[in-house]
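for the recovery benchmark. tokens below, seq after
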């Protein structure tokens, strides 16, 4: 191997143009004429359906980009690439080649190859790239193969709302929350990442062996999974659920306006229930907490898609009465295709620079006039480009925003409200978040406010660790080039990061 790469490096220095011109001549096996950049990858292009001239062209192209391409199929090959759409005949042919290592090879559609050529590196193998063997015996082995290729970053995985591993991820989320309650940040993150990996799997984990090669699963997470696989439940989780501290902090933080610090303070004072808090004369609730308790029943109940849509219409009407060029987008969980949410999130802005904040205040005024504003916490914009890039990743953004509780009439909702039993008020209270970025910041704000939180975290971590870039809700900054990168759409941001675009419906990490 060592000697071969030396040969090819010398040749490459002579001329890389020359090697492209002589592409029609057959190259000798295993003696590539270019610098090898990806030693761990060894390609074989299947000639069937591709044809010999296209095959030799693609071979040269890949070699010129630093890939090793062998002319002969052997057990050294890691990636088999084919243009054959007849899966069964391809696999029959492969199995007849007398390979000892076929189950470890990635058998891939040409799309993986073209993606890799475009990126100039072997891209992560995704399910859509795989040519799966339809026959059961080999299917098991080839289903295990892609596992090793799942990225540790949520922004390189597709995660729909259809979670096939809820039994595990629910347990992980309780553990993560408990670590958060006990201020153990790194353990909390570890369990959130593990949950996120399992949510992205298109299959259910049925034995611990199936998790081999999955990223972000440590000893502890696997031990919890083994308990669940064997007994249907985790004893560690049950212990947490029955602990007084967890139950109380969970209850108190479920109130709008009550954070972990306040909840802990109340817990340490011996308070255990809402009635004890409300009866305690020394406790002075702030305005947000008062509304939180007042509307607790309504806002702790899930918001449906129909209710979210009705609120969208109300905001749309109010905004368009103020200015005809208003831009409204529903973000958060509903944009990711969730059926229910804890609130409804919107971006409201206008192409007229500087007018967006004024517009937001006008919308709030309009709600007041309509008599539907039950609570409003308004935060003026503190946004200025000179403050960027923002180094603190968990920091809230600087845009003008408001956290609202709105009154929604049943008559506005398609199919009616989701009401508690025996409730015939004909309206309910719903939490609504509005944010108003200037239009040139729209794509960044949309990406940040669409979430999920875990998806956003990993986008930022990926940008920082893999690209030397800083991403937040306002901007993307390239530390190498020392410049801000512009984006008109979410697609532009993914492209700047060298990431395949992930549509909102697949960001439920
Ligand atoms: N967000 C943000 N800045 C804030 C508040 C929220 O960037 N000040 C982002 C969050 O990081 C998240 C998205 O906005 O990505 C939506 O937040 P939230 O409503 O809390 O979560 P959802 O994903 O919408 O979940 P749910 O359906 O429960 O509302
Ligand atoms: Mn939301
Ligand atoms: Mn929200």
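predicted aa per position
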């Amino acid at each position: 191997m060592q000697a071969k790469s030396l040969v090819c490096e010398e040749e490459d220095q002579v001329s890389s143009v020359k090697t492209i011109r002589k592409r029609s001549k057959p190259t000798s096996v295993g003696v590539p004429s270019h610098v090898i950049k990806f030693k761990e990858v060894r390609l074989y292009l299947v000639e069937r359906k591709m044809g010999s001239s296209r095959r030799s062209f693609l071979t040269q192209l890949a070699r010129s980009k630093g890939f090793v391409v062998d002319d002969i199929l052997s057990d050294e090959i890691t990636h088999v690439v084919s243009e054959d759409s007849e899966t069964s005949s391809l696999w029959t042919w492969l199995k007849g080649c007398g390979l000892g290592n076929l189950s470890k090879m990635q058998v891939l559609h040409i799309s993986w190859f073209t993606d890799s050529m475009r990126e100039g590196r072997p891209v992560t193998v995704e399910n859509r790239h795989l040519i799966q063997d339809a026959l059961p015996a080999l299917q098991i082995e080839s289903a295990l193969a892609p596992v090793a290729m799942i990225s540790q970053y949520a922004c390189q995985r597709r995660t729909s709302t259809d979670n096939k591993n809820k039994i595990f991820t629910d347990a992980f989320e309780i553990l993560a929350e408990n670590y958060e309650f006990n201020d153990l940040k790194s353990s909390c993150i570890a369990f959130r990442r593990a949950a996120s990996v399992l949510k992205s799997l298109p299959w259910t984990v049925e034995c611990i062996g199936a998790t081999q090669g999955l990223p972000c699963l440590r000893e502890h997470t696997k031990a919890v999974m083994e308990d669940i696989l064997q007994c249907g439940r985790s004893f560690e989780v049950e212990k947490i659920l029955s602990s007084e501290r967890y139950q109380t902090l969970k209850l108190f933080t479920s109130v709008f306006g009550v954070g972990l610090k306040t909840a802990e303070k109340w817990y340490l004072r011996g308070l255990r229930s809402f009635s004890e808090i409300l009866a305690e004369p020394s406790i002075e609730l702030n305005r947000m907490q008062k509304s939180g308790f007042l509307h607790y029943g309504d806002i702790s109940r899930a918001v449906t898609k129909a209710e979210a849509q009705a609120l969208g219409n109300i905001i749309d009407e109010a905004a368009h009465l103020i200015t005809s060029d208003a831009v409204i987008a529903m973000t958060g969980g509903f944009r990711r295709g969730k059926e229910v949410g804890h609130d409804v999130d919107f971006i409201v802005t206008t192409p007229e620079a500087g007018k967006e904040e004024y517009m937001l205040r006008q919308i709030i005024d309009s709600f007041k006039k309509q008599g539907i504003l039950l609570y409003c916490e308004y935060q003026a914009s503190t946004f200025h480009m000179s403050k960027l890039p923002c180094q603190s990743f968990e920091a809230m953004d600087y845009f003008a925003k408001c956290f609202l509780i709105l009154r929604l009439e049943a008559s506005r909702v398609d199919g009616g409200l989701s009401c508690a039993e025996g409730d015939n008020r004909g309206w309910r209270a719903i939490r609504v978040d509005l944010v108003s970025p200037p239009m040139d910041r729209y794509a960044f704000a949309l990406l940040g406010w669409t979430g999920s939180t875990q998806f956003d975290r990993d986008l930022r971590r990926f940008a920082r660790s893999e690209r030397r870039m800083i991403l937040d809700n306002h901007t993307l900054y390239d530390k190498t080039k020392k410049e801000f990168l512009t984006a008109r759409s979410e697609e532009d941001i993914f492209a700047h990061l060298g990431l395949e675009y992930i549509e909102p419906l697949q960001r439920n990490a």
